[in-house]
Each structure stands twice: as C-alpha cells, then as structure tokens.
Write a structure and sequence with these properties.
This protein is α/β, with parallel strands linked by helices. Helix content is 50%, strand content 9%. It has three domains: 154 residues, Rossmann fold; 82 residues; 149 residues, Four Helix Bundle (Hemerythrin (Met), subunit A) (Up-down Bundle). The strands form three sheets. The chain has a six-stranded parallel β-sheet with strand order 5-4-1-6-7-8, sandwiched between helices. Strands 9-10-11 form a three-stranded mixed β-sheet. A two-stranded antiparallel sheet has the order 2-3. Strand 10 and strand 11 form a beta hairpin. The longest helix is centred in the C-terminal third of the chain and has 25 residues. It is globular and about 65 Å long. The two termini are 21 Å apart.
C-alpha cells in the first residue's frame, strides 16, 4: 500500500514567515481596494470572515460560503464588484508578494523523490485562501501543479474545515477516497499541523526550523527535523508503524463530521447521468449510497445512540439494511435531497455526541451480532461505515479531486 503524505505549505514547502507575510498581504489588499471601502473596515471584515472559517463546524457549507456570509453583510459591498476586484488583485498584485518568500531546494528534491517512490502527495495547507493564492505560492516554492502530480490541493472553495480542527485532516483523507495504508502529516506548526493531526490518529513529522522541543505531550510528533531528514526517516519506518489509528473520541467525531462535508464536495460536480449510474450490476450508484446513509442514520444510528444513553445495558437487534436499496427503490429517489437529509441527521447525531462527558462513551450495550459492546465501539462502527461508503462513492465517480 502506497504511503500518503499530507504536506503543509507555508514554512514547510515554502520559506514564508506568516507573521511577516500576512501584514503585507493585508496592507496590499486593503490599499488596492481603498477606493471602494475604507481600509480599516475592509481588514476588520476580512479578519472576521477568516475567524468564522477557522471556527466553522458546519459540514454543509464551504469555507468560501462561510466567509461570504460574514464578509458581505459586514462591508455592504456588492458581491460581483468585490469578486471582480479580488480576481484582479490576485492576478496582478498578489504575485508581487513572492519577494517575501524563498523556495527551498531540498523541498523540490524531496517531492521529486517521493513521486519516484509512488507516494501520494496532498497539499494540506490551511484552506483559508482562494485556490489561485495557493497555486501561486506552490509555484513560488518551485512546485507548480502543472509539473507535479498532487492528488489534492486544499483551498477555501471546496473545503469545509480549517486547521486546527482535526476534521480538516479527515476531510482531506475523505477527498482522496480514504486511502488504506500509511499516512504521515508533514508540517511546521505544532498546534495546527501536529496536534490536530494526532487527534485524528495520524503519524506526524514536525519540520523544526530551530531544533526546538515540542511544548506539551499533545504536541508529540513521531519525528522532527528538517526536510533533508524526512525521506531517510520515512524509509526507515515500516508501513505498519505509520498506519492511522482512528480510535480516539476526537478521531471518531472528526470522521463523522467530515463525511457529509466530503459528500457535499463530491456531489457538487456530479452530472445528471452519474447520479443513477451503477459501476456494475452489484454496485450501488451515488444516489443509492446517499439514500442508504440517510436511512441508516435515521433508523439505526440515532435510535441506537438514544437507546444506549437512555437505558442501562440495552439489547440492540441487528439490522440488515442492504436490502432496503431495492425494497425502497433508492435509485428512483433524489440523490441531492438524500444528501441534505443525511446531513441534517448527522448534525443531530453530532450534537448529542459532542456534549457527552467522557464516561458516557463507555456506556454498555448487548448487540445481537457484536455481543458485549459500548458506545465508543458502536460509534467506531459508524465511522468505519462512513469511510467504506466514501470509498465506494469515490470509486463510483472516478473523479479527480484536485
């Protein structure tokens, strides 16, 4: 199984001190747009919109949509007018900020070596910028997407979560079809890259520019060093040492939250003919998968959760839900509406789970198939079911997520 690398961008692949870059970026953007809006008001709105993206927990809205919902009411600007100005800024002014950054020759060498070894490479930068700004910074790093085959580049147009939310990394893996096998997150920020990835159960490599020590036990990378040492370290590790372990409460919640977000992104580009196209006679089409997820959430997952929380050591009957696809004629239903309904039910499930004290996750139950169990194990089964059907959905579409 191929190794998957989730690579941060700023100060990992590109020498770019964000504490220097961000003020210059804000000044350049606010000055450019000053004939349309007072600079201080613009910066306040931009930062408020950015905070709303970082804080977002909704799986049904992209970060761009979240940003717009804050930015435009705050500024009163016309959407079309602002987007035209922003397009011009990123095309004409933003490139001048390249002088604040420096490419790292060892990074280019590493990416080329990783490609030769067949590693899957994902640009897991914090998706708080539009895609054009991220692609430009990749080009500044000497890693233009026209030359390097990245499986995915995170940006605010298609992502729903931002670092340090561990759901960002779950969404990233879901967007490439939840690959089996080893996964390593490579980044320079202990909180945003390392700690949040570890909350999902991923192995991490801290790109340490100053030979520092991690600040706490929760910021405990599997390894740290510069980019020159990353490849030797990867080659010294067995694949089994780097396989994710999605077993913690934080990991389970991140996966459950990411599933409707991943499906939202994948479904936005589904053509009319694809919704009901089965890849083979024995495989479900996208609409059938979504209807299955919706009904399992409504009729199995939520009732089981409420039963375990409301009764002492309840008995949980087994449910054979696969026949529902034919019995309920899923293929004749509306896939988009099924996704909406699934998302509503999933948010209800998450609302219950996120409020639980840790001890409640150990509440016991007796399952007709699994035997003695507890709530955390049952939620783990739901998360595994999510990943399986994301993989199936991904195969159905056969699309390029980048």
């Amino acid at each position: 199984m191929s190794l998957t690398l989730l690579l941060d961008l700023d100060n990992t692949l590109l020498a770019n001190d964000i504490d220097t870059f961000l003020p210059v970026y804000l000044r350049a953007f606010s000055e450019y747009i000053s004939t349309h809006i007072e600079p201080e008001k613009f910066v306040r709105a931009l930062m408020a919109g950015t905070k709303s993206m970082v804080d977002n927990q909704r799986p049904d809205c992209t970060l761009e949509e979240i940003f717009r919902s804050v930015f435009f009411p705050t500024t009163g600007m016309d959407k079309g007018e602002f987007e035209s100005l922003a397009d011009h800024f990123y095309a004409r002014i933003f490139p001048s900020l390249q002088e604040l950054t420096n490419p790292l020759p060892e990074v280019i060498q590493f990416v080329e070596m990783a490609g030769e070894r067949g590693y899957r490479l994902v640009i897991a930068t914090n998706p708080l910028f539009p895609r054009t700004a991220i692609l430009q910074r990749l080009a500044w790093a000497g890693l233009p997407v026209e030359k390097y085959n990245f499986d995915l580049v995170a940006s605010f147009e298609t992502f729903h979560f931002a670092k340090p939310n561990p759901a960002f990394f779950a969404e990233t893996l879901g967007r490439i079809g939840w690959p089996e096998g080893p996964v390593v997150v490579v980044g320079d920020d202990l909180e945003r890259d390392i700690a949040s990835a570890e909350q999902l159960g991923l192995s991490t490599y801290w790109v340490d520019h100053q030979n520092s020590e991690p600040g706490s036990a929760s910021e405990n990378p599997a390894m740290s060093g510069d980019m020159d040492y990353l490849m030797p370290w990867l080659e010294s590790m067995s694949n089994g040492d780097l396989v994710p372990e999605y077993s913690s409460i934080s990991a389970l919640l991140a996966i459950l939250r990411s599933t409707p977000a991943v499906l939202d992104s994948l479904c936005r580009d589904v053509s009319e003919g694809t919704w009901t196209k089965r890849p083979s006679a024995n495989e479900w089409c996208p609409t059938e998968i979504l209807c299955h997820l919706r009904d399992v959430e409504q009729e199995v997952n939520l009732p089981r959760l409420r039963k375990v929380l409301g009764e002492e050591d309840p008995f949980l009957p087994g449910e054979d839900t696969d026949p529902w696809a034919e019995e309920r004629e899923y293929i004749c239903q509306d896939g988009k509406q099924a996704l909406y309904s699934f998302t509503v039910e999933r948010m209800r499930l998450l609302d219950i789970l996120t409020k639980l004290p840790d001890k409640s996750w150990q509440r016991s139950a007796r399952h007709a198939i699994f035997g003695r169990t507890h709530l955390k194990e049952l939620v783990g089964i739901v998360a595994g079911h999510d990943r399986m059907h994301i993989q199936q959905f991904f195969r159905d579409l056969g699309s390029d997520p980048a």
